[in-house]
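Hey, I was hoping to borrow your eyes for a little while. No rush at all, and the record is pasted right below:
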Amino acid sequence: MFEIFGIPSQALFGQLLIGLINGSFYALLSLGLAVIFGMLNIINFAHGAQYMMGAFAAFFLLNYAGLNYWFALVLVPFMVGAFGVVIERLFLQRLYKLDHLYGLLLTFGLALIIEGVFRNNFGSSGLPYRVPPTLQGGQNLGFMFLPNYRAWVIVASLLVCISTWYVIERTRLGANLRAATENPTLVRAFGINVPRMITLTYGFGVALAAFAGVMAAPIYNVSPQMGSHLIIVVFAVVVIGGMGSILGAIVTGFGLGVIEGLTKVFFPEASNTVIFIIMAIVLLIRPAGLFGRRA
């Protein structure tokens, strides 16, 4: 074992791995928030609750339907995304012409209701969800031990984030989505069903949160509070990257996760606040965020 800046390499790389794992969830969740805000102009405070629903849905499928992690990883985003579609059709579509505050208050209320229902039925203690057998164990890299499941989470998150960025920024579908937010009347003239597109966009953003919830289930306990503990940090990530910026959500999500992990090594006292300190600095220098566009 060797040392870097007087710190054992195993401890340093271990915290770097934890930072990348946290960054994976920050990136996925902030990506879903950025998609929803960028396309719908809704600040979706229920995102943490929808992330928690993804983890619980995976738990239910395993324990009551006998469907393992891989089935849950495919099915749960569709299930929770469909729930998001219902929310959009019943509530959110009535708020698009109003101030952003109304959408924030509505989704905050929905988050409290969803979390309260799960807490009332399952309590506050976490429920275990085992790592799938194919991803158990790990690899000894010499300078650190890399668990297989942690490596899978990082790779899967990167693939989903990059694929989402590519679809929105580089394809015809993404161009239609962006055009629908800028000039919906013109887009309707080309025969595109804008309300349906907006509904599916919200469902997709919710599905990203559910996907993150499934991947988080084997790492963290499945708990009603797991979303509320994370959502404030994720909002800070979105603000730093730029509200509605897809690339900003991905880069800042992974980057801030790494910074947070390294802070735990070099200055542990600041590890819980470093992201918010960075947010304050960024807002002072560039109020639109690192990748955001000025209004």
